Amino acid sequence: xxxxxxxxxxxxxxxxxxxxxxxxxxxxxxxxxxxxxxxxxxxxxxxxxxxxxxxxxxxxxxxxxxxxxxxxxxxxxxxxxxxxxxxxxxxxxxxxxxxxxxxxxxxxxxxxxxxxxxxxxxxxxxxxxxxxxxxxxxxxxxxxxxxxxxxxxxxxxxxxxxxxxxxxxxxxxxxxxxxxxxxxxxxxxxxxxxxxxxxxxxxxxxxxxxxxxxxxxxxxxxxxxxxxxxxxxxxxxxxxxxxxxxxxxxxxxxxxxxxxxxxxxxxxxxxxxxxxxxxxxxxxxxxxxxxxxxxxxxxxxxxxxxxxxxxxxxxxxxxxxxxxxxxxxxxxxxxxxxxxxxxxxxxxxxxxxxxxxxxxxxxxxxxxxxxxxxxxxxxxxxxxxxxxxxxxxxxxxxxxxxxxxxxxxxxxxxxxxxxxxxxxxxxxxxxxxxxxxxxxxxxxxxxxxxxxxxxxxxxxxxxxxxxxxxxxxxxxxxxxxxxxxxxxxxxxxxxxxxxxxxxxxxxxxxxxxxxxxxxxxxxxxxxxxxxxxxxxxxxxxxxxxxxxxxxxxxxxxxxxxxxxx
Length: 565
Ligand code: ATP
Ligand code: MG
Known about the structure:
Blueprint: H1 10-20, E1 29-32, H2 42-57, E2 61-66, H3 76-89, E3 97-99, H4 104-116, E4 120-123, H5 127-133, H6 151-163, E5 172-175, E6 190-194, E7 208-210, H7 212-222, E8 227-231, H8 238-248, E9 254-258, E10 262-263, H9 270-278, H10 293-299, H11 303-313, E11 321-322, H12 324-338, E12 341-342, E13 344-345, E14 348-353, E15 361-367, E16 377-383, E17 385-389, E18 409-412, E19 417-425, E20 432-439, E21 457-458, E22 460-462, E23 467-474, E24 501-509, E25 521-524, E26 528-532, E27 543-548, H13 553-559
The structure holds adenosine-5'-triphosphate and magnesium ion.
Protein backbone atom coordinates (compact mmCIF):
# COMPACT_ATOMS: atom_id res chain seq x y z
CA UNK A 1 0.00 0.00 0.00
CA UNK A 2 1.35 3.42 -0.84
CA UNK A 3 1.63 5.31 2.39
CA UNK A 4 1.62 9.05 2.51
CA UNK A 5 3.31 10.61 5.52
CA UNK A 6 1.13 10.28 8.60
CA UNK A 7 0.04 13.23 10.68
CA UNK A 8 2.28 14.11 13.63
CA UNK A 9 1.17 13.07 17.09
CA UNK A 10 2.66 12.33 20.50
CA UNK A 11 3.17 8.62 19.85
CA UNK A 12 5.23 9.40 16.76
CA UNK A 13 7.30 11.75 18.88
CA UNK A 14 7.94 8.99 21.42
CA UNK A 15 8.88 6.50 18.70
CA UNK A 16 11.20 8.98 17.00
CA UNK A 17 12.84 9.78 20.33
CA UNK A 18 13.41 6.07 20.94
CA UNK A 19 14.95 5.62 17.50
CA UNK A 20 17.24 8.59 18.16
CA UNK A 21 18.30 7.08 21.49
CA UNK A 22 18.82 3.71 19.83
CA UNK A 23 16.43 2.12 22.28
CA UNK A 24 15.73 -1.50 21.21
CA UNK A 25 18.58 -1.08 18.72
CA UNK A 26 16.43 1.44 16.87
CA UNK A 27 13.80 -1.18 16.06
CA UNK A 28 10.09 -0.34 15.83
CA UNK A 29 7.81 -3.31 16.32
CA UNK A 30 4.10 -2.84 17.07
CA UNK A 31 1.14 -5.20 17.16
CA UNK A 32 -2.60 -5.09 16.68
CA UNK A 33 -4.11 -7.42 19.33
CA UNK A 34 -7.82 -8.08 18.73
CA UNK A 35 -9.78 -10.50 20.81
CA UNK A 36 -11.71 -12.75 18.39
CA UNK A 37 -15.04 -12.25 20.15
CA UNK A 38 -16.73 -10.10 17.52
CA UNK A 39 -16.22 -8.22 14.27
CA UNK A 40 -13.92 -5.23 14.02
CA UNK A 41 -15.42 -1.75 14.11
CA UNK A 42 -14.24 1.69 13.04
CA UNK A 43 -12.54 2.15 16.43
CA UNK A 44 -10.37 -0.84 15.68
CA UNK A 45 -9.57 0.73 12.32
CA UNK A 46 -8.06 3.65 14.22
CA UNK A 47 -5.81 1.26 16.13
CA UNK A 48 -4.93 -0.73 12.98
CA UNK A 49 -3.99 2.41 11.05
CA UNK A 50 -1.91 3.60 13.98
CA UNK A 51 -0.02 0.36 14.60
CA UNK A 52 0.53 -0.67 10.99
CA UNK A 53 1.06 2.96 10.01
CA UNK A 54 3.86 3.49 12.55
CA UNK A 55 5.56 0.28 11.44
CA UNK A 56 5.41 1.37 7.79
CA UNK A 57 6.59 4.87 8.56
CA UNK A 58 9.66 3.77 10.54
CA UNK A 59 10.51 0.66 8.50
CA UNK A 60 9.42 -1.54 11.36
CA UNK A 61 7.05 -4.46 11.70
CA UNK A 62 3.51 -4.88 12.96
CA UNK A 63 2.18 -8.22 14.17
CA UNK A 64 -1.36 -9.43 14.14
CA UNK A 65 -1.93 -11.13 17.46
CA UNK A 66 -5.19 -12.70 18.49
CA UNK A 67 -5.61 -12.04 22.17
CA UNK A 68 -7.58 -15.23 22.66
CA UNK A 69 -7.44 -16.06 26.34
CA UNK A 70 -11.20 -16.00 27.08
CA UNK A 71 -12.50 -19.35 25.83
CA UNK A 72 -16.22 -18.66 26.31
CA UNK A 73 -16.64 -15.89 23.78
CA UNK A 74 -14.09 -16.62 21.07
CA UNK A 75 -14.67 -18.24 17.68
CA UNK A 76 -12.85 -19.11 14.46
CA UNK A 77 -15.46 -17.19 12.45
CA UNK A 78 -14.36 -14.01 14.22
CA UNK A 79 -10.70 -14.74 13.47
CA UNK A 80 -11.53 -15.06 9.77
CA UNK A 81 -13.58 -11.87 9.68
CA UNK A 82 -10.83 -9.92 11.45
CA UNK A 83 -8.22 -11.06 8.94
CA UNK A 84 -10.47 -10.22 6.01
CA UNK A 85 -11.16 -6.73 7.39
CA UNK A 86 -7.51 -5.87 8.05
CA UNK A 87 -6.53 -7.02 4.56
CA UNK A 88 -9.37 -5.04 3.04
CA UNK A 89 -8.21 -1.93 4.91
CA UNK A 90 -4.92 -2.38 3.07
CA UNK A 91 -2.56 -3.74 5.71
CA UNK A 92 -0.37 -6.84 5.67
CA UNK A 93 1.02 -8.74 8.64
CA UNK A 94 2.97 -11.07 6.33
CA UNK A 95 3.87 -14.22 8.27
CA UNK A 96 3.42 -12.58 11.66
CA UNK A 97 0.05 -14.02 12.62
CA UNK A 98 0.18 -14.95 16.28
CA UNK A 99 -2.17 -16.25 18.94
CA UNK A 100 -1.81 -15.65 22.67
CA UNK A 101 -3.25 -19.15 23.08
CA UNK A 102 -0.09 -20.51 21.44
CA UNK A 103 1.86 -18.99 24.32
CA UNK A 104 -0.03 -20.81 27.09
CA UNK A 105 2.93 -23.14 27.73
CA UNK A 106 5.39 -20.26 27.81
CA UNK A 107 3.12 -18.17 30.03
CA UNK A 108 2.85 -21.13 32.39
CA UNK A 109 6.65 -21.31 32.58
CA UNK A 110 6.81 -17.58 33.33
CA UNK A 111 4.32 -18.13 36.15
CA UNK A 112 6.41 -20.93 37.61
CA UNK A 113 9.40 -18.58 37.46
CA UNK A 114 7.44 -15.87 39.26
CA UNK A 115 6.47 -18.35 42.00
CA UNK A 116 10.11 -19.42 42.37
CA UNK A 117 11.05 -15.77 42.80
CA UNK A 118 8.54 -15.56 45.64
CA UNK A 119 6.42 -13.11 43.64
CA UNK A 120 3.27 -15.16 43.13
CA UNK A 121 1.14 -17.45 45.27
CA UNK A 122 -1.82 -19.77 45.02
CA UNK A 123 -4.81 -18.28 46.80
CA UNK A 124 -7.85 -20.27 47.92
CA UNK A 125 -10.22 -17.32 48.24
CA UNK A 126 -13.23 -17.21 45.94
CA UNK A 127 -13.58 -14.45 43.35
CA UNK A 128 -16.03 -12.61 45.62
CA UNK A 129 -13.68 -12.83 48.59
CA UNK A 130 -10.75 -11.59 46.52
CA UNK A 131 -12.65 -8.56 45.35
CA UNK A 132 -14.09 -7.91 48.79
CA UNK A 133 -10.64 -8.04 50.44
CA UNK A 134 -9.09 -5.81 47.78
CA UNK A 135 -10.41 -2.72 49.55
CA UNK A 136 -11.20 0.60 47.89
CA UNK A 137 -9.48 3.85 47.04
CA UNK A 138 -10.01 4.99 50.62
CA UNK A 139 -9.62 1.65 52.33
CA UNK A 140 -6.52 -0.54 52.34
CA UNK A 141 -6.79 -4.10 51.09
CA UNK A 142 -6.43 -7.08 53.40
CA UNK A 143 -3.79 -9.70 52.85
CA UNK A 144 -4.97 -13.15 51.82
CA UNK A 145 -4.43 -15.81 54.51
CA UNK A 146 -2.71 -17.87 51.76
CA UNK A 147 -0.23 -15.13 50.87
CA UNK A 148 2.69 -16.56 52.74
CA UNK A 149 2.63 -20.10 51.45
CA UNK A 150 6.08 -21.52 50.75
CA UNK A 151 7.46 -21.61 47.23
CA UNK A 152 7.30 -25.42 47.32
CA UNK A 153 3.65 -25.47 48.31
CA UNK A 154 2.81 -22.88 45.65
CA UNK A 155 4.63 -24.85 42.94
CA UNK A 156 2.83 -28.01 43.99
CA UNK A 157 -0.61 -26.38 44.10
CA UNK A 158 -0.12 -24.50 40.83
CA UNK A 159 0.92 -27.72 39.09
CA UNK A 160 -2.15 -29.46 40.43
CA UNK A 161 -4.35 -26.55 39.33
CA UNK A 162 -3.12 -27.16 35.80
CA UNK A 163 -3.66 -30.92 36.13
CA UNK A 164 -7.31 -30.31 36.89
CA UNK A 165 -7.34 -31.47 40.52
CA UNK A 166 -9.44 -28.55 41.78
CA UNK A 167 -12.90 -27.35 40.89
CA UNK A 168 -13.51 -24.20 38.79
CA UNK A 169 -13.11 -20.99 40.72
CA UNK A 170 -11.70 -22.68 43.81
CA UNK A 171 -8.18 -21.27 43.54
CA UNK A 172 -6.27 -18.58 41.67
CA UNK A 173 -2.66 -17.67 41.13
CA UNK A 174 -2.00 -14.14 42.33
CA UNK A 175 0.93 -11.77 42.04
CA UNK A 176 2.44 -10.93 45.41
CA UNK A 177 2.72 -7.16 45.22
CA UNK A 178 1.20 -4.87 47.85
CA UNK A 179 -2.28 -4.93 49.38
CA UNK A 180 -1.83 -1.29 50.43
CA UNK A 181 -0.90 -0.06 46.96
CA UNK A 182 -2.85 3.06 45.93
CA UNK A 183 -3.54 1.42 42.55
CA UNK A 184 -6.13 -1.31 43.19
CA UNK A 185 -4.84 -3.36 40.28
CA UNK A 186 -1.52 -3.70 42.13
CA UNK A 187 -3.21 -5.31 45.15
CA UNK A 188 -2.11 -8.85 44.36
CA UNK A 189 -3.65 -9.07 40.87
CA UNK A 190 -5.08 -12.42 39.79
CA UNK A 191 -2.95 -14.06 37.08
CA UNK A 192 -4.70 -17.42 36.54
CA UNK A 193 -8.19 -18.77 37.08
CA UNK A 194 -9.45 -22.35 36.99
CA UNK A 195 -12.06 -22.59 34.27
CA UNK A 196 -13.11 -25.77 32.47
CA UNK A 197 -14.07 -24.42 29.13
CA UNK A 198 -13.62 -25.47 25.53
CA UNK A 199 -11.11 -23.22 23.76
CA UNK A 200 -11.68 -22.83 20.01
CA UNK A 201 -7.99 -23.55 19.29
CA UNK A 202 -6.67 -25.45 22.30
CA UNK A 203 -9.73 -27.59 22.91
CA UNK A 204 -9.68 -29.05 26.43
CA UNK A 205 -5.89 -28.85 26.78
CA UNK A 206 -6.08 -26.25 29.54
CA UNK A 207 -8.30 -25.78 32.55
CA UNK A 208 -6.45 -22.75 33.85
CA UNK A 209 -6.58 -19.55 31.84
CA UNK A 210 -4.40 -16.44 32.16
CA UNK A 211 -6.01 -13.06 32.85
CA UNK A 212 -5.58 -10.17 30.43
CA UNK A 213 -2.95 -8.57 32.66
CA UNK A 214 -0.86 -11.70 32.77
CA UNK A 215 -1.20 -12.65 29.11
CA UNK A 216 -0.87 -9.31 27.42
CA UNK A 217 2.49 -7.92 28.51
CA UNK A 218 4.19 -11.30 28.45
CA UNK A 219 2.87 -11.93 24.90
CA UNK A 220 4.21 -8.51 23.85
CA UNK A 221 7.56 -9.49 25.35
CA UNK A 222 7.69 -12.90 23.63
CA UNK A 223 7.15 -11.17 20.27
CA UNK A 224 9.82 -8.55 20.90
CA UNK A 225 7.30 -5.73 20.65
CA UNK A 226 8.90 -2.33 21.24
CA UNK A 227 5.81 -0.11 21.57
CA UNK A 228 2.65 -1.67 22.98
CA UNK A 229 -0.05 0.81 22.07
CA UNK A 230 -3.45 0.55 23.71
CA UNK A 231 -6.42 2.68 24.66
CA UNK A 232 -6.64 4.96 27.70
CA UNK A 233 -8.55 2.58 29.96
CA UNK A 234 -5.34 0.55 30.22
CA UNK A 235 -3.36 3.43 31.66
CA UNK A 236 -4.12 2.20 35.20
CA UNK A 237 -2.88 -1.26 34.20
CA UNK A 238 0.54 0.07 33.18
CA UNK A 239 2.20 -0.23 36.63
CA UNK A 240 1.18 -3.89 36.68
CA UNK A 241 2.36 -4.40 33.09
CA UNK A 242 5.73 -2.95 34.09
CA UNK A 243 5.96 -4.77 37.42
CA UNK A 244 5.39 -8.23 35.92
CA UNK A 245 7.97 -7.73 33.16
CA UNK A 246 10.48 -6.34 35.65
CA UNK A 247 10.07 -9.28 38.03
CA UNK A 248 10.54 -11.75 35.19
CA UNK A 249 13.49 -9.77 33.85
CA UNK A 250 12.48 -10.30 30.24
CA UNK A 251 12.31 -7.94 27.23
CA UNK A 252 10.24 -4.96 28.33
CA UNK A 253 8.08 -3.20 25.72
CA UNK A 254 6.80 0.29 26.45
CA UNK A 255 3.04 0.58 26.91
CA UNK A 256 1.60 3.81 25.48
CA UNK A 257 -2.05 4.79 25.77
CA UNK A 258 -4.18 6.92 23.44
CA UNK A 259 -7.83 7.97 23.41
CA UNK A 260 -10.22 5.47 21.90
CA UNK A 261 -12.44 6.58 19.07
CA UNK A 262 -16.04 7.33 19.91
CA UNK A 263 -18.27 8.17 16.99
CA UNK A 264 -21.52 10.09 17.21
CA UNK A 265 -24.88 8.32 16.75
CA UNK A 266 -23.45 4.85 17.20
CA UNK A 267 -21.79 2.56 19.73
CA UNK A 268 -18.29 1.11 19.46
CA UNK A 269 -18.35 -1.85 21.77
CA UNK A 270 -18.30 -5.40 20.53
CA UNK A 271 -20.49 -6.49 23.41
CA UNK A 272 -23.22 -4.02 22.49
CA UNK A 273 -22.90 -4.65 18.77
CA UNK A 274 -23.22 -8.39 19.44
CA UNK A 275 -26.41 -7.72 21.37
CA UNK A 276 -27.87 -5.79 18.41
CA UNK A 277 -27.03 -8.74 16.15
CA UNK A 278 -28.32 -11.43 18.50
CA UNK A 279 -31.56 -9.66 19.30
CA UNK A 280 -32.27 -8.91 15.64
CA UNK A 281 -32.10 -5.12 15.76
CA UNK A 282 -29.85 -5.37 12.70
CA UNK A 283 -29.51 -8.10 10.08
CA UNK A 284 -25.99 -9.10 11.13
CA UNK A 285 -22.51 -7.82 11.89
CA UNK A 286 -22.30 -6.57 8.30
CA UNK A 287 -25.63 -4.73 8.34
CA UNK A 288 -24.87 -1.48 6.49
CA UNK A 289 -26.01 0.52 9.52
CA UNK A 290 -23.37 -1.05 11.74
CA UNK A 291 -20.11 0.83 12.52
CA UNK A 292 -18.24 -2.40 11.79
CA UNK A 293 -15.65 -2.57 9.02
CA UNK A 294 -17.80 -5.21 7.29
CA UNK A 295 -20.90 -3.04 7.64
CA UNK A 296 -19.13 0.01 6.25
CA UNK A 297 -17.75 -2.11 3.39
CA UNK A 298 -21.22 -3.40 2.54
CA UNK A 299 -22.55 0.14 2.77
CA UNK A 300 -20.07 1.16 0.05
CA UNK A 301 -17.27 2.75 2.07
CA UNK A 302 -13.79 2.49 0.59
CA UNK A 303 -10.68 1.51 2.56
CA UNK A 304 -9.12 4.79 1.43
CA UNK A 305 -11.95 6.80 2.99
CA UNK A 306 -11.59 4.99 6.30
CA UNK A 307 -7.82 5.43 6.34
CA UNK A 308 -8.18 9.13 5.54
CA UNK A 309 -10.68 9.45 8.39
CA UNK A 310 -8.33 7.71 10.83
CA UNK A 311 -5.55 10.06 9.86
CA UNK A 312 -7.75 13.17 10.08
CA UNK A 313 -9.04 12.46 13.59
CA UNK A 314 -5.50 12.23 14.89
CA UNK A 315 -4.16 10.60 18.02
CA UNK A 316 -4.74 12.29 21.36
CA UNK A 317 -4.71 11.64 25.09
CA UNK A 318 -8.23 12.87 25.81
CA UNK A 319 -11.47 11.08 24.98
CA UNK A 320 -14.00 12.87 22.80
CA UNK A 321 -16.79 12.07 20.35
CA UNK A 322 -16.06 12.48 16.65
CA UNK A 323 -19.03 13.57 14.56
CA UNK A 324 -20.29 11.06 12.01
CA UNK A 325 -20.45 13.71 9.23
CA UNK A 326 -16.65 13.78 9.26
CA UNK A 327 -16.57 10.11 8.29
CA UNK A 328 -19.27 10.74 5.69
CA UNK A 329 -17.28 13.58 4.20
CA UNK A 330 -14.28 11.29 3.80
CA UNK A 331 -16.19 8.78 1.73
CA UNK A 332 -17.99 11.49 -0.24
CA UNK A 333 -14.71 13.07 -1.20
CA UNK A 334 -13.16 9.75 -2.20
CA UNK A 335 -16.16 8.59 -4.24
CA UNK A 336 -16.49 11.98 -5.89
CA UNK A 337 -13.12 11.32 -7.53
CA UNK A 338 -13.85 7.82 -8.73
CA UNK A 339 -17.49 6.76 -8.68
CA UNK A 340 -19.09 6.73 -12.14
CA UNK A 341 -22.23 8.84 -12.46
CA UNK A 342 -25.48 7.23 -13.52
CA UNK A 343 -29.13 8.21 -13.39
CA UNK A 344 -31.50 6.44 -11.05
CA UNK A 345 -34.96 7.49 -9.88
CA UNK A 346 -35.81 6.47 -6.34
CA UNK A 347 -39.50 7.47 -6.23
CA UNK A 348 -40.66 7.49 -9.83
CA UNK A 349 -43.23 9.91 -11.27
CA UNK A 350 -44.37 9.14 -14.81
CA UNK A 351 -43.80 11.82 -17.45
CA UNK A 352 -45.23 11.57 -20.97
CA UNK A 353 -43.63 13.80 -23.61
CA UNK A 354 -46.72 14.35 -25.68
CA UNK A 355 -44.97 15.79 -28.76
CA UNK A 356 -42.32 13.02 -28.88
CA UNK A 357 -43.02 10.19 -31.36
CA UNK A 358 -44.32 6.98 -29.76
CA UNK A 359 -42.01 4.61 -31.60
CA UNK A 360 -38.81 6.59 -31.28
CA UNK A 361 -35.78 5.97 -29.02
CA UNK A 362 -32.59 7.97 -29.20
CA UNK A 363 -29.27 7.52 -27.46
CA UNK A 364 -27.93 10.57 -25.67
CA UNK A 365 -24.33 10.94 -24.66
CA UNK A 366 -23.71 11.20 -20.92
CA UNK A 367 -20.44 11.96 -19.09
CA UNK A 368 -19.30 9.15 -16.78
CA UNK A 369 -17.38 11.29 -14.35
CA UNK A 370 -16.79 15.03 -14.63
CA UNK A 371 -13.92 14.67 -12.11
CA UNK A 372 -12.13 12.10 -14.25
CA UNK A 373 -11.66 12.91 -17.94
CA UNK A 374 -10.44 9.37 -18.58
CA UNK A 375 -13.76 7.86 -17.48
CA UNK A 376 -15.33 8.58 -20.89
CA UNK A 377 -18.98 8.69 -21.86
CA UNK A 378 -21.91 6.33 -22.30
CA UNK A 379 -25.20 6.42 -24.16
CA UNK A 380 -28.46 6.76 -22.29
CA UNK A 381 -31.76 5.93 -24.04
CA UNK A 382 -34.49 8.60 -24.24
CA UNK A 383 -38.08 7.97 -25.30
CA UNK A 384 -41.63 9.30 -24.98
CA UNK A 385 -42.39 7.95 -21.51
CA UNK A 386 -39.94 8.78 -18.74
CA UNK A 387 -39.70 8.72 -14.96
CA UNK A 388 -38.48 11.64 -12.91
CA UNK A 389 -38.09 11.92 -9.15
CA UNK A 390 -41.42 12.55 -7.44
CA UNK A 391 -39.83 15.22 -5.22
CA UNK A 392 -38.70 17.12 -8.33
CA UNK A 393 -42.27 18.20 -9.02
CA UNK A 394 -44.54 20.43 -6.95
CA UNK A 395 -47.98 21.48 -8.01
CA UNK A 396 -47.89 24.60 -5.92
CA UNK A 397 -44.20 25.39 -5.43
CA UNK A 398 -42.86 27.74 -2.78
CA UNK A 399 -40.64 30.60 -3.90
CA UNK A 400 -37.34 28.79 -3.65
CA UNK A 401 -38.38 25.60 -5.42
CA UNK A 402 -37.00 25.84 -8.94
CA UNK A 403 -37.75 22.38 -10.23
CA UNK A 404 -40.72 21.23 -12.28
CA UNK A 405 -44.16 22.78 -11.69
CA UNK A 406 -47.23 23.40 -13.86
CA UNK A 407 -46.35 25.66 -16.80
CA UNK A 408 -42.66 25.64 -15.90
CA UNK A 409 -39.73 24.57 -18.06
CA UNK A 410 -36.71 22.61 -16.79
CA UNK A 411 -33.78 20.74 -18.34
CA UNK A 412 -33.54 16.96 -18.39
CA UNK A 413 -29.89 16.11 -17.87
CA UNK A 414 -28.07 15.36 -21.20
CA UNK A 415 -31.44 15.55 -22.99
CA UNK A 416 -33.92 18.37 -23.63
CA UNK A 417 -35.86 21.16 -22.03
CA UNK A 418 -39.34 19.98 -21.11
CA UNK A 419 -42.36 21.99 -20.01
CA UNK A 420 -45.16 20.74 -17.81
CA UNK A 421 -48.46 21.23 -19.61
CA UNK A 422 -50.85 19.09 -17.61
CA UNK A 423 -51.04 17.28 -14.29
CA UNK A 424 -52.93 13.99 -14.16
CA UNK A 425 -54.31 12.90 -10.81
CA UNK A 426 -55.83 9.77 -9.44
CA UNK A 427 -59.53 10.62 -9.25
CA UNK A 428 -59.91 8.76 -5.97
CA UNK A 429 -56.88 9.85 -3.94
CA UNK A 430 -56.01 13.07 -5.70
CA UNK A 431 -52.41 11.89 -5.95
CA UNK A 432 -50.41 13.13 -8.92
CA UNK A 433 -49.83 10.06 -11.14
CA UNK A 434 -48.55 11.53 -14.39
CA UNK A 435 -47.24 14.73 -15.90
CA UNK A 436 -47.92 15.53 -19.52
CA UNK A 437 -45.10 17.61 -20.90
CA UNK A 438 -43.79 18.95 -24.19
CA UNK A 439 -40.14 18.99 -25.20
CA UNK A 440 -38.24 21.46 -27.35
CA UNK A 441 -36.31 19.50 -30.02
CA UNK A 442 -33.91 22.43 -30.48
CA UNK A 443 -32.53 21.98 -26.94
CA UNK A 444 -31.00 18.53 -27.57
CA UNK A 445 -27.95 18.06 -25.32
CA UNK A 446 -29.31 20.52 -22.80
CA UNK A 447 -28.92 24.03 -24.21
CA UNK A 448 -31.33 26.31 -25.93
CA UNK A 449 -30.10 28.03 -29.14
CA UNK A 450 -32.21 31.10 -28.32
CA UNK A 451 -30.38 31.53 -25.00
CA UNK A 452 -33.45 30.68 -22.91
CA UNK A 453 -32.50 29.79 -19.33
CA UNK A 454 -34.00 27.23 -16.97
CA UNK A 455 -33.32 27.07 -13.26
CA UNK A 456 -33.18 23.31 -12.71
CA UNK A 457 -31.71 20.19 -14.26
CA UNK A 458 -33.40 16.93 -13.39
CA UNK A 459 -32.30 13.33 -13.67
CA UNK A 460 -34.60 10.87 -15.39
CA UNK A 461 -34.82 7.42 -16.93
CA UNK A 462 -36.67 6.08 -19.95
CA UNK A 463 -39.58 3.97 -18.71
CA UNK A 464 -39.26 1.33 -21.40
CA UNK A 465 -35.51 0.87 -20.85
CA UNK A 466 -35.02 1.36 -17.12
CA UNK A 467 -34.27 -1.50 -14.73
CA UNK A 468 -36.43 -1.97 -11.65
CA UNK A 469 -34.26 -2.14 -8.53
CA UNK A 470 -34.54 -2.04 -4.77
CA UNK A 471 -32.83 0.78 -2.90
CA UNK A 472 -32.04 0.93 0.81
CA UNK A 473 -31.62 4.29 2.47
CA UNK A 474 -30.02 4.54 5.88
CA UNK A 475 -30.38 6.87 8.80
CA UNK A 476 -28.15 6.89 11.84
CA UNK A 477 -28.34 3.83 14.08
CA UNK A 478 -29.03 5.95 17.18
CA UNK A 479 -31.01 9.17 17.42
CA UNK A 480 -28.72 10.91 19.93
CA UNK A 481 -25.29 12.29 19.18
CA UNK A 482 -24.02 10.55 22.30
CA UNK A 483 -25.74 7.20 21.88
CA UNK A 484 -24.90 6.32 25.46
CA UNK A 485 -26.88 9.23 26.89
CA UNK A 486 -30.08 7.50 28.05
CA UNK A 487 -32.71 8.40 30.62
CA UNK A 488 -31.95 7.15 34.07
CA UNK A 489 -32.80 3.49 34.40
CA UNK A 490 -33.50 3.13 30.67
CA UNK A 491 -31.96 0.43 28.50
CA UNK A 492 -28.86 1.47 26.50
CA UNK A 493 -30.81 0.61 23.35
CA UNK A 494 -33.56 3.13 24.07
CA UNK A 495 -31.98 5.63 21.64
CA UNK A 496 -32.01 3.22 18.72
CA UNK A 497 -33.39 5.00 15.66
CA UNK A 498 -36.58 3.24 14.53
CA UNK A 499 -36.19 4.91 11.13
CA UNK A 500 -32.61 3.85 10.45
CA UNK A 501 -33.63 1.75 7.43
CA UNK A 502 -35.96 2.72 4.58
CA UNK A 503 -36.47 0.17 1.82
CA UNK A 504 -37.68 1.50 -1.52
CA UNK A 505 -38.94 -0.94 -4.09
CA UNK A 506 -39.93 -0.02 -7.62
CA UNK A 507 -36.99 2.33 -8.12
CA UNK A 508 -35.73 2.66 -11.69
CA UNK A 509 -32.15 2.96 -12.92
CA UNK A 510 -30.64 3.42 -16.36
CA UNK A 511 -29.91 0.20 -18.28
CA UNK A 512 -26.12 0.62 -18.18
CA UNK A 513 -26.27 -0.85 -14.65
CA UNK A 514 -27.62 -4.18 -15.88
CA UNK A 515 -24.41 -6.07 -15.16
CA UNK A 516 -23.22 -4.07 -12.15
CA UNK A 517 -21.16 -6.39 -9.96
CA UNK A 518 -21.76 -6.89 -6.24
CA UNK A 519 -19.96 -4.14 -4.36
CA UNK A 520 -19.80 -1.85 -7.43
CA UNK A 521 -20.10 1.80 -6.47
CA UNK A 522 -21.66 4.67 -8.37
CA UNK A 523 -23.22 8.06 -7.93
CA UNK A 524 -26.92 8.33 -8.74
CA UNK A 525 -26.86 11.90 -9.96
CA UNK A 526 -28.31 14.25 -7.34
CA UNK A 527 -29.28 11.35 -5.01
CA UNK A 528 -26.02 10.24 -3.48
CA UNK A 529 -23.46 7.49 -3.70
CA UNK A 530 -24.69 3.92 -3.86
CA UNK A 531 -23.25 0.46 -4.06
CA UNK A 532 -24.61 -2.87 -5.18
CA UNK A 533 -25.43 -4.93 -2.11
CA UNK A 534 -23.23 -7.99 -2.19
CA UNK A 535 -25.53 -10.15 -0.13
CA UNK A 536 -29.03 -9.58 -1.48
CA UNK A 537 -28.34 -8.85 -5.17
CA UNK A 538 -28.05 -11.58 -7.76
CA UNK A 539 -30.12 -13.77 -10.07
CA UNK A 540 -31.52 -10.78 -11.90
CA UNK A 541 -32.23 -8.79 -8.74
CA UNK A 542 -30.36 -5.59 -8.04
CA UNK A 543 -30.27 -4.04 -4.58
CA UNK A 544 -28.47 -0.75 -3.94
CA UNK A 545 -27.34 0.60 -0.58
CA UNK A 546 -27.01 4.33 -0.23
CA UNK A 547 -23.51 4.92 1.10
CA UNK A 548 -24.01 8.62 1.69
CA UNK A 549 -26.07 11.49 0.33
CA UNK A 550 -24.63 14.34 -1.69
CA UNK A 551 -24.49 17.75 -0.16
CA UNK A 552 -27.98 19.04 -0.94
CA UNK A 553 -28.69 22.81 -0.87
CA UNK A 554 -32.49 22.36 -1.11
CA UNK A 555 -32.53 19.97 1.85
CA UNK A 556 -30.65 22.61 3.85
CA UNK A 557 -33.17 25.27 2.89
CA UNK A 558 -36.05 22.99 3.96
CA UNK A 559 -34.35 22.08 7.21
CA UNK A 560 -33.95 25.75 8.00
CA UNK A 561 -37.57 26.48 7.00
CA UNK A 562 -36.51 29.08 4.42
CA UNK A 563 -38.52 27.74 1.44
CA UNK A 564 -40.44 30.97 0.91
CA UNK A 565 -37.89 33.62 1.69
P1 ATP B 1 -14.62 -3.40 22.42
O1 ATP B 1 -14.77 -2.41 23.53
O2 ATP B 1 -15.28 -2.98 21.17
O3 ATP B 1 -14.93 -4.80 22.80
P2 ATP B 1 -11.90 -4.06 22.81
O4 ATP B 1 -10.89 -3.04 23.18
O5 ATP B 1 -12.33 -5.00 23.85
O6 ATP B 1 -13.08 -3.33 22.10
P3 ATP B 1 -10.07 -5.66 21.35
O7 ATP B 1 -10.35 -6.74 20.38
O8 ATP B 1 -9.46 -6.00 22.64
O9 ATP B 1 -11.44 -4.91 21.58
O10 ATP B 1 -9.26 -4.49 20.65
C1 ATP B 1 -8.11 -4.67 19.88
C2 ATP B 1 -7.36 -3.37 19.84
O11 ATP B 1 -8.16 -2.33 19.31
C3 ATP B 1 -6.95 -2.95 21.24
O12 ATP B 1 -5.62 -2.53 21.20
C4 ATP B 1 -7.88 -1.81 21.56
O13 ATP B 1 -7.30 -0.90 22.42
C5 ATP B 1 -8.16 -1.22 20.17
N1 ATP B 1 -9.47 -0.57 20.16
C6 ATP B 1 -10.67 -1.12 20.50
N2 ATP B 1 -11.65 -0.21 20.42
C7 ATP B 1 -11.08 0.96 20.03
C8 ATP B 1 -11.57 2.27 19.77
N3 ATP B 1 -12.86 2.59 19.91
N4 ATP B 1 -10.68 3.22 19.38
C9 ATP B 1 -9.39 2.91 19.21
N5 ATP B 1 -8.86 1.70 19.44
C10 ATP B 1 -9.69 0.72 19.84
MG1 MG C 1 -10.59 -6.21 24.76
